[in-house]
């Protein structure tokens, strides 16, 4: 079954070229089915790229999904046009009375800043608080994961000595968790960040469990034992060339940065990186939708208020 998005969303053209079935609103209205309601809080600068990346992963499921996009209204976006935001994105005031089966909170390239200094932190706190009663399961990505752990569990992030960037091997620690169903013992995933969350801090919180980690990159996936929240420290949604674009951007800005680890063949930046993590990405997001969301979310979402 397809994902349902606004008819004119530019991401549709990219996904259709990849033979991904995207259903527009007109056709979806004629289907007698209770679709999953998914909200994506997109905090990334290049919102169009992140839309394609996440919609691609959400499409890999037999479930029909209604997808809506949310942006931080208290932040001025420089890399996405106001026309695009006005046409395809909601502000929090427009969705705060609604209920959702799932919420995805993306990363943001601001991890070196204290949380309270982020210009939309107060708005994000409202969204975190609202999600407890209006969202069944939330998937947090990279900085979004660090922010979620800080808000919900008072877990701090720590500055690394240098940027962590590259493709790293990870070990599955809790294979019995449904979100990791079908995973091999080890899998690859991209990381791109200046900060980390420590495993020892996660282990102090009874309701949290470390599900996957890397010897080189540290934590990758943390889950709440009630399956209502997951925190991924890496970027499985990244495209083949996303790390390359970030590396070239940093170089142009004069930011001292190392070549992404285990990314370019033989560390030759002129060669095309191999795509080695999308199988794990598809499986992780499909498992989240199927096991954490679809099989447990109430049919009547307003029942979330009584939980």
From TrEMBL:
Q: List residues binding substrate.
A: 163, 192, 249
- Which EC class, in a word? transferase
Active site (record annotation): 142 (acyl-thioester intermediate), 235 (proton acceptor), 237
- Site Important for acyl-CoA specificity: give positions: 111
What EC number is given for this enzyme? 2.3.1.31
Q: Into which family does the record put it?
A: Belongs to the MetA family.
Q: What name does UniProt use for this protein?
A: Homoserine O-acetyltransferase
Record lineage: Bacteria, Bacillati, Bacillota, Bacilli, Lactobacillales
